[in-house]
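TODO from last week: model MgsA AAA+ ATPase C-terminal domain-containing protein.
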Amino acid sequence: AYNILELAVGAYSGEDRQKVIEIDTALIENIIQKKALLYDKNGEEHFNLISALHKSMRDSDPDAAVYWTVRMLESGEDPLYIIRRMVRFASEDIGLADPNALQVAISAKQSFEFIGPPEGYLAIIEAVIYLALAPKSNSLYTTYKKVKSDVEEFGSLPVPYHIRNAPTRLMKDIGYGKGYKYAHDYNDAVVDQAHLPEKLLARKYYSPADRGFEKELINRLKAINILKKKQK
C-alpha cells in the first residue's frame, strides 16, 4: 500500500505541490499497470514476454513480434537481452533457410550500440520484422542434437587414419594420412572417401528443410552424392 501511495505522489511530482491527490480505484489500477510494466523484469512476466516474442517470430507474425519487442523495450528491458534472443532465433529457427538472418541480428546489435536509444530501437525492430518474415528451418538445431547424442553415447571415437594430421615422418610411417584423397585433384572438388569414425559411417546428420536457401542445399547434396557414386 505504501509503495502505491509513493508512486501516486511521484506521478504528480511535477504539478502543483498544493494540489490534493484523489486516490481512487482508477488511479490505483493505472499505477499498478505502470508498476508491472516498468518493474517486472525478473519475474514470470519477464519470461512470458520473451517467449511471446520468440514464438511470434517463429510463427511468422511480424505484428505480434514488434508488439512484444516494444512492450519489453518500454518496460525497461535490456535491449541486448532481446538481441541475444534474436541471434539465437536466427540460428535455431531460421538457420540456412536464410543465411543472412544471423548477420541481420548481429547488425542490429552493432547498430543499437552505435546509435543508442531510442533511435537505435528501430534497428532492433527492423531485425525483428526480418526474422519474423524469413523462411524457417530448425535443421541446424536438430543436426546439433543428433550429433551431440552420438558424441555422448560413443565418446571419443578415433579419427580415421587417412584424415589424420601427419606433420612428422614417424606419423606417416605408422599410417597417418595414408590414402587421403585431395579434393582439388578431382572433378568439382568432390571426393568419395569416409570422414566419420567407423562406427558412425551410416549416419546422416544434416537434413535440410525444403524451404528458402536450403532448397538449393538439397540440390547441392544430391549433386555431391551423384559425383561420389561416379567415383566408386
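Done. The first helix runs from residue 2 to 11.
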